[in-house]
Write a structure and sequence with these properties.
It is a single chain. This protein is an all-alpha fold and 119 residues long. 34% of the residues lie in helices and 0% in strands.
């Protein structure tokens, strides 16, 4: 949903409570994964496929498996539309049909009992 509607972004964790008002600026003081910026991650997962894949917001991977595994291993990367799609790509690279695995293998936050069809 977020990717298809151009709503990609990042979340901020509140360390010290306070008040934000219009016109105030937020400053990022640390980047735990400077190699994986949002534009680079987006380009790697959604921007290097065919024109059709890009237009349909279908994830694809045209880099090495180790790099994809590194991306999936980032604790800060969101599950929905990012890690889940990257895990599917990893499974496909390993010759696994993603339709044959439980939904919790692709997204550990999914309750496999409640989900019957997951692709």
């Amino acid at each position: 949903f977020a990717h298809r509607n151009c709503l990609g972004g990042w979340f901020a964790r509140v360390l010290v409570g306070g008040e934000l008002r219009d016109g105030m600026k937020l400053a990022r003081t640390a980047s735990p994964n400077p190699r994986w910026t949002l534009p680079r991650t987006n380009e790697a997962l959604y921007g290097e496929g065919t024109r059709l894949q890009s237009n349909m917001a279908v994830a694809s991977w045209h880099r090495g498996r180790d790099e994809l595994a590194e991306l999936v291993g980032l604790p800060q990367l969101g599950e929905c539309e990012w890690k889940a799609e990257a895990r599917k790509l990893l499974l496909r690279m390993d010759g696994v049909d993603v339709r044959t695995v439980g939904p919790d293998v692709i997204d550990p936050f999914v309750d496999p009992v409640r989900v019957r069809i997951y692709q």
